[in-house]
Design brief:
- The protein is mostly helical.
- The chain has one domain.
- 74% of the residues lie in helices and 0% in strands.
- The longest helix has 23 residues.
- The two termini are 15 Å apart.
- The model has no long low-confidence stretch (mean pLDDT 89).
């Protein structure tokens, strides 16, 4: 598997979410119909920082050899991020009453990235000549 494609696509996906959360915090809070208060806005901005941090990490590691024993922390960090995120999204899909198309879309994307990073984590990279 070409890890560069997975790393770049995950970096763009996470970066898009991070930038959206950073610049449209109040709008997202209203869209989610949550009680807008300072704590929920702070939580969304902290999530933005986490998404942007993961995006930058993946972007900077895109040219590195990843898999097996190489860059194991990056592979396992992404696997945990996408794996736990996919499980949480799948668990909540049936309980969401509104905007479930967003949750279903995120669950699919997270599941795909979780499978990719699980494969990357379990296999050794091929040496490119």
């Amino acid at each position: 598997m070409n890890t560069k494609i997975v790393m770049v696509s995950s970096a763009f996906f996470l970066g898009l979410i991070g930038i959206t959360l950073s610049f449209f915090t109040k709008e997202i809070d209203v869209y989610l119909n949550s009680d807008s208060n300072n704590a929920s806005l702070l939580f969304l901005q902290l999530m933005s920082a986490l998404y942007l941090g993961f995006a930058l990490m993946n972007w900077m590691a895109k040219d590195s050899r990843i898999g097996g024993i190489y860059n194991r922390p990056i592979a396992i960090g992404n696997l945990m991020n996408f794996g736990v995120g996919a499980l949480a999204l799948i668990k909540i899909v049936s309980k969401i009453e509104f905007h479930n198309e967003v949750i279903i879309g995120l669950a699919i994307i997270y599941s795909i990235f979780a499978i990719c990073f699980a494969y990357i984590f379990r296999t050794h990279p091929k040496i490119e000549k």
